[in-house]
Write a structure and sequence with these properties.
The complex is a heterodimer of chains A (150) and B (408).
Chain A: H1 2-17, E1 34-47, E2 56-63, E3 68-75, E4 88-97, E5 103-112, E6 115-118
Parallel strand pairs in A: 3-5
Antiparallel strand pairs in A: 1-2, 1-4, 2-3, 4-5, 5-6
Chain B: H1 5-62, H2 64-75, E1 80-87, E2 90-96, E3 111-116, E4 119-129, E5 135-143, H3 145-228, H4 237-264, E6 271-273, H5 276-287, E7 295-300, E8 307-309, H6 310-326, E9 331-339, E10 342-349, H7 356-359, H8 377-387, E11 391-396, E12 402-407
Helix pairs in contact in B: 1-2, 1-3, 3-4, 6-8
The chains are: A mainly beta (150), B alpha+beta (408).
């Protein structure tokens, strides 16, 4: 009885704090599993999700139906729009299956404050990595460059 | 050669048709290059798929780990964008050089291509079963940079050829339209010359009649007057006045008849190199006398000595200055410039100018807009200039003077 109470309390704490799931070890943009969510920014974070010394903007979004999503947006240098906690946001993206069954979304396009920002093409190619504009890996990729605003 | 608007339209049509034809040819050539390049890439992909299939099956037989390590070794290659291995349809292992980019499909098509912001990506897929019957698929996505380069090169040459073609068409159209305009002008000029010749022939007939019917009796009249003159009393002011008037008016009529004749007869020319500085110095000196003469300013911008008829040119200049004076000008500016084999004269005055309605007829004989004009002066000036192998034009705005331009 005590054990079950402790477990229930832990689950309740997680729900209250809204701790998001961590990124899966290898995760990718599945262009066959797309979805749209709409909600409010609850938390903003930066993480090296692909382990290449490029910090990605990670948002925790609480949807209008109260579901919590962890959303991987783009490298922080790519976005020149200010995002603040409490903002309303709409995200098109690819929904991933995580080992802990939490909700993880790789954003393809975000809309906030009347502005639409494209982040990936229809097959998930990151727009910040276009030839001559990207930062990071491979000989075709150079320094930070363009923005994905429309 | 007479070029009509119809010929020009046909030529323009031909130019447009041929440029359209070359554009389509160029476009189809570009498409063919692109299609062939892709065909080659797919053919190369099929070869890779066969090699990959054999190698992957061999490694899988040794164990799953061997296959995954082999895929990682392939991934190191610069051209490779991603590798992936699926077991029973579920992703087992994957690597991608672009964050989260793994555009896998569910079908098992051995070679497929798709566009990306980097260019065309080729994906090779091979399927195999291990000893236990589990199905594995190995995927390699690579960037065949040559496709992009060839396509870009085809696009660049297409663009270049299209631009070149557009430039040629523009030049041709500009040339044809300028040629058309020139021909139009020449036709008008020929027509005008023809009309003028006809008019001069008529004038010639009239003047020969005048010569016969008026000049001879007038000469007799003048001789009679000369015989009577010594008998007249010069001390009587009334006699002196009427005698002078009679003499002056007979001379004026004779002068008009002579000018009429000069319009219809061909003008003899005596060509020589003209020292312009001296020529205009004499002109200025001659016009410095009369009280109402305008001030003459000379701007000599050439050192050349044009070959022309000094006397006839002087006659034309005198006529221009006389006209300016009669139009109330106080200043006449003569500018002379030389270019190649031509000499340009500009005679600009600050007189009353010529109205739009009158300017069209200004060189027509016997048409004068002055109260005492005969309509011969400018017609004769034009005839002289044409005889000297040049042309004369006039520009004027009423109330703001006039400018006569002579090209010799």
């Amino acid at each position: 009885m005590k054990k079950s109470k402790l477990l229930s309390s832990l689950l309740l704490m997680q729900a209250v704090l809204g701790l998001p799931a961590q990124a899966p070890p290898f995760h990718y943009f599945d262009h066959k599993n797309l979805t749209v969510i709409q909600g409010q920014v609850q938390h903003i974070d930066y993480e090296e999700v692909y382990g290449r010394k490029t910090e990605f903007l990670i948002l925790r979004i609480q949807c209008d139906d109260q579901r919590l999503f962890r959303v991987e947006v783009c490298p922080q240098w790519f976005l020149d729009t200010d995002i603040a906690v409490g903002m309303k946001i709409r995200i098109h993206g690819s929904l991933l299956k995580t080992p802990d069954n939490s909700l993880y979304l790789i954003a393809q396009e975000i809309s906030l404050q009347g502005e639409r920002i494209s982040l990936r093409d229809s097959r998930g190619f990151p727009l910040w990595s276009r030839q001559g504009q990207s930062g990071g890996y491979g000989k075709n990729r150079k320094g930070p460059g363009g923005r994905g605003k429309r | 050669m007479k070029i009509t608007a119809r010929y020009i339209a046909i030529l323009l049509g031909l130019v447009i048709f041929s440029s359209g034809f070359f554009y389509l040819l160029n476009l189809s050539n570009r498409r063919a290059v692109e299609a062939r390049t892709l065909e080659l890439a797919v053919s190369e992909g099929k070869t890779i798929e066969k090699v990959l299939g054999k190698a992957a099956l061999h490694l899988l037989e040794k164990g799953e780990g061997h296959l995954l390590r082999f895929m990682d070794e392939i991934y190191v290659n610069d051209q490779v964008i991603y590798v992936a291995v699926r077991r029973s349809g579920r992703l087992l292992h994957a690597r991608s050089k672009y964050e989260g980019y793994l555009p896998l499909e569910n079908d098992l098509q051995p070679v497929k291509t798709f566009a990306s912001p980097l260019g065309e990506i080729i994906e090779v897929t091979t399927a195999m079963n291990d000893r236990s019957g589990l199905q594995y698929t190995a995927h390699i996505g690579y960037f065949f940079s040559a496709i992009g380069e060839i396509r870009n090169s085809a696009r660049k040459s297409f663009l270049l050829l299209t631009l070149l073609q557009a430039a040629i068409v523009l030049v041709l159209v500009a040339f044809l339209s300028s040629f058309n305009r020139q021909m139009g002008r020449k036709e008008i000029e020929i027509q005008r010359e023809k009309e003028e010749k006809e008019k001069l022939q008529e004038i010639s007939l009239i003047t020969s009649g005048i010569n016969h019917e008026i000049k001879n009796p007038l000469n007799s009249l003048y001789l009679s007057y000369q015989m009577l003159e010594p008998r007249l009393d010069p001390a009587d002011p009334e006699t002196a006045f009427h005698s002078q008037t009679l003499k002056r008016e007979i001379k004026r009529i004779l002068d008009i008849i002579d000018r009429f004749s000069s319009l219809s007869h061909s003008i003899a020319t005596h060509m020589e190199a003209i020292d312009l500085r001296r020529f205009f110095a004499e002109l200025q000196a001659a016009w410095s006398g009369p009280e109402a003469s305008p001030r003459i300013i000379l701007r000599l911008e050439t050192q050349k000595e044009p070959v022309s008829d000094r006397g006839l040119l002087r006659q034309v200049m005198d006529n221009m200055i006389r006209n300016a004076m009669e139009a109330g000008a106080t200043l006449v500016t003569i500018t002379v410039r030389g270019a190649k084999k031509k000499t340009f004269f500009s005679i600009r005055d600050d007189g009353r100018g010529i109205s739009k309605e009158h300017i069209k007829f200004i060189f027509d004989p016997f048409i004068s807009f002055k109260s005492r004009g005969s309509g011969i002066g400018l017609a004769l000036a034009r005839k002289i200039i044409m005889q000297l192998g040049g042309r004369i034009e006039v520009e004027s705005v009423e109330g703001r003077g006039a400018e006569f331009k002579i090209v010799l």
